[in-house]
Amino acid sequence: MRWERGRRSDNIEDRRGMRVGKKGLASGGIGAIVLTLVAMYFGVDPSVLLNQADKLSPTQTERHTTFSPEEERLKEFMSVVLADTEDVWGTLFRGSGQPYTQPKLVLFSGSVQSACGFAEAAMGPFYCPGDQKLYLDMRFFNDLAKRHDAPGDFAQAYVVAHEVGHHVQTLLGVSNQVNTARQRAGEAEGNALQVRMELQADCFAGVWAHHANKARQILEPGDTEEALAAAAGVGDDRLQKKARGYVVPESFTHGSSEQRMRWFSRGMQSGEPGQCDSFKATQL
């Protein structure tokens, strides 16, 4: 990916090396309920959060850490990708007569406190609509490359663009509508709605790639394949097969590998956000 000459975003909040202070949380209390709802909202197993509840705290201590040149270069890359999403979505929103509020990207190490609650790196990158921030432990990219067979800088860019896609959904009111509908739905129906939400974010990531390449020719040979590998690597069927040895489609919350690749490709080929309405699609 050609990124070195790209604009750098100022919307980076660097919390790497900062420790989340420990503070007790009574099991089964209001805090636990909030964590469970947050987990359900993001399609995460609530036990992932509840098992970490004793570490919850609204504060983070000052860091005393130095980072390698490779880590600093990766941070710089993240700022360029974020700036690219700002440029693309800012232009698209202006074209439809709407303002685009730029999200912040929070880089953290291990665990982090967000407006959506406490989270650990094991959850993977996520977007919190409560503070309109993306949260990312960059060590996730090691897992992306080694565990999910998706190395490469454009695979990393896809991850950021997907989370920005969730921000776009928040600005458009999609997130609120889906969350409200999920609260009234049963588990299977709620999971199905979440899948459509994730696939739309994949499509929005493809829309970004289309316009960024059209404007700045960022793509190099193999980049598209890197993004598709990342989309496939985090498909529910592949993750469940690795973890359980079998697949339960009714429990999908993000979509199959094939679906995720298809919707990313749909956005990338068309460049049209209107083509990303996964909620009206009869076939995903």
Automatic annotation (TrEMBL):
PANTHER family: INNER MEMBRANE PROTEIN (PTHR30168:SF0), PUTATIVE MEMBRANE PROTEIN YPFJ (PTHR30168). The chain crosses the membrane at residues 25-44. GO terms for cellular component: membrane. This is Flagellar biosynthesis protein FlgM. It comes from the Bacteria. It holds the Pfam family Zn_peptidase. It comes from Sulfuriferula multivorans. It is found in: Membrane. Keywords: Cell projection, Cilium, Flagellum, Membrane, Transmembrane, Transmembrane helix. InterPro entries: Uncharacterised_pept_Zn_put. It is a single-pass membrane protein.
